[in-house]
Design brief:
Blueprint (H helix, E strand, L loop, with lengths): L1 H24 L10 E2 L2 E6 L3 E7 L10 E12 L4 E6 L1 H7 L14 H6 L31 H16 L5 E8 L2 E10 L1 E7 L1 H6 L3 E3 L2 E10 L2 E5 L1 E4 L2 E3 L1 E8 L2 E3 L1 E3 L6 E8 L15 E5 L9 E3 L13 E6 L2 E8 L6 E5 L8 E8 L13 E9 L11 E11 L1 E7 L4 E5 L5 E6 L5 E7 L2 E9 L10 E6 L12 E6 L13 H36 L1
Parallel strand pairs: 3-12, 16-25, 26-32
Antiparallel strand pairs: 1-2, 2-4, 3-7, 4-5, 4-6, 4-8, 6-7, 8-10, 9-13, 10-11, 14-15, 14-17, 17-23, 18-22, 18-24, 19-23, 20-21, 21-22, 24-25, 26-29, 27-28, 27-30, 30-31
Length: about 525
């Protein structure tokens, strides 16, 4: 029995050694075609897979999709139980390309690459991500400028222009209030992560920095452990705010009268682009505004540093700290203004300016499409330059609306309308349908007074008030119209000097007098004949 126990113990110990050796060596997979490390065929390319996770925002609405571009491959020597690293073919082609790779990186070795200053990926303002292992992140990008960030930004530019196909796509994945994009089955190695343009366009307020991390193998005692990549995304958002200022009121939704001065106010934040990318031609910001009034000073900058410039009726140049940074043009037919900042690297992050908006006039429909829209467009740093749609945008409209006063009355009647201060707002004439209207009024209380009554009708005495807007009597089926009824009365038929009634009485009286005279004459004649007959 004791002998059997010794045999079993030996077998268990032998199996333990076998399993342990298997974990040490065969836990690392290699390519099926035995792709080897350059200069040393004893190192085979590793194909173990893990997850590449990018934490993107503090809410679950961010559906940004990223593409991965491999930078470094990993190779393993089973006999030495050791790893070596080598640039991928695509990344090496970039390093050899003098048009895109800066000269200081042309002879970059993998050893020097490993020692580059990789920047700081921690975002202290997002405590939401306290669970992310920031120490694992080696991302370069737009929040800091260093050699690593510069190198990866240049590589991102190379990918954009050369249309390099990605190694993998990370789709959206949400998990318990921690939204991130999660790519599974990503081979061991270092990757550059860039957002796809379609998502950047859909959520057009964000520019992501270049982000780099590794799905890697780490030695833990006698075994290798697979470590997933975890990146806290570096991103910068644009912000556009568009408001209007009418009679001491600043809002994005306001009512006003026709011909009232309207001032527009716009402020916007410029997104920060990846550090040190080559092609600055695609770093432009364009702001477009509808219906700008053509008059002196139709656009003025509030942000300090912008010089007052000589602007004609169609535009001019824009200077910041005495340097030309863009231009502005105005279409005198449509009133549309386009402001283009060609060099944003020297501009402040937030810019604010005012403009004179076109006034409302009688051609505008009540409560209709009286809008002023401002649109901010910026270049997408990750889309090829010859793509038709290479800009992302953010827009905001302000709505300016008016009301109308409707009088229900008698055809041909005329009324004047005054506001609460007694200022005349216009006149209303009642048409054949018994309705008259005055458009272009802001909300408030108005006085309606009749100035002319139709023929045969009595003039209305006194005035009436009508409330336009909230609290008024709205007209069914006519949005923005408020009604008041003021009908005239028909005059009564009464005799008066020179009238038909007097003439009739005069004729009747005259006939009676004539009849009486005729009767008296005939009576006297008859009596005379009778007396003569008696005498004879």
């Amino acid at each position: 029995m004791e002998r059997k126990l010794k045999i079993v113990s030996c077998l268990v110990f032998f199996l333990f050694l076998l399993i342990n050796c298997t974990l040490n060596v065969e836990a690392i997979n290699i390519t099926t075609n035995n792709e080897t490390y350059s200069g040393d065929s004893s190192y085979k390319k590793v194909t173990n897979t893990g997850n590449f996770k990018i934490y993107t925002s503090s809410n679950g609405s961010d559906k940004t999709v990223f593409r991965l571009y491999k930078v470094v491959d990993v190779y393993y020597n089973s006999s030495q139980d050791a790893l070596k690293y080598q640039f991928t073919t695509i990344f090496q082609q970039f390093l050899n390309n003098s048009s895109y790779c800066p000269s200081k990186f042309r002879d970059l070795t993998i050893e020097r690459y490993m020692t580059l200053n990789q920047g700081d990926a921690v975002r202290d303002d997002l405590n939401y991500y306290s669970g992310v292992e920031d120490s694992n992140v080696v991302s370069g990008g737009n929040l800091s400028s260093n050699d690593f960030a510069e190198l990866m930004s240049e590589f991102a530019e190379y990918i954009r222009v050369q249309r390099i196909v990605s190694d993998a796509t990370l789709s959206n994945f949400d998990r318990v209030n921690i939204p991130y994009v999660d790519g599974s089955s990503i081979p061991v190695g270092t990757y550059l992560a860039l957002p796809t343009y379609n998502e950047l366009n859909t959520f057009g307020a964000t520019v992501f920095g270049v982000m780099v991390d590794s799905v890697r193998l780490e030695k833990n005692g006698s075994s290798w452990e697979l470590k997933d990549a975890k990146i806290l995304a570096k991103s910068s958002s644009s912000f556009l705010r568009h408001r209007i200022y009418v009679e001491n009121t600043l809002s994005t939704y306001i009512d006003t009268s026709f011909n009232t001065s309207i001032e527009g106010k716009i402020s916007f934040d410029i997104p920060t682009y990846p550090a040190n990318a080559i092609d600055t031609a695609y770093r432009s910001i364009t702001v477009t505004i509808d219906k700008v009034r053509d008059e002196s000073g139709w656009l003025t900058f509030i942000t300090s540093g912008f010089s007052t410039f000589d602007m004609s009726s169609t535009g001019g140049t824009i200077k910041y700290n005495n340097e030309i940074v863009g231009n502005v043009t105005r279409n005198n037919t449509t009133g549309q203004v386009v402001i283009e900042f060609r060099s944003i690297s020297t501009l402040p992050r937030t810019i604010e300016f005012n403009y004179h908006a076109e006034k409302l006039n009688s051609t505008n429909s009540v409560m209709g499409p009286n809008r002023r829209t401002a649109t901010l467009k910026f270049s997408d740093p990750y889309t090829a330059s010859n793509d038709a749609a290479e800009k992302s945008s953010d827009s905001q409209s302000v709505t300016i609306y008016t009301y109308a006063l409707q009088v229900t009355g008698t055809n041909g009647a005329e009324f004047k309308v005054t506001d609460s201060s007694g200022t005349a707002m216009g006149t209303v004439t009642i048409g054949n349908d018994g309705i008259g209207e005055l458009k272009g009024l802001k909300s408030g209380t108005y006085t309606v007074t009749q100035t002319k009554a139709p023929a045969g009708y009595a003039l209305l005495s006194g005035s009436q008030t009508i409330k336009v807007g909230n609290g008024g009597t709205s007209v069914s089926g006519k949005d923005g119209y408020y009604n008041i009824t003021m009908r005239n009365s028909i005059l009564a038929i009464l005799p008066f000097t020179g009238s038909m009634g007097t003439l009739i009485f005069t004729i009747i009286g005259s006939l009676l007098i004539i009849s009486s005279i005729v009767f008296i004459i005939r009576y006297k004649k008859k009596n005379k004949e009778n007396r003569n007959a008696t005498i004879n």
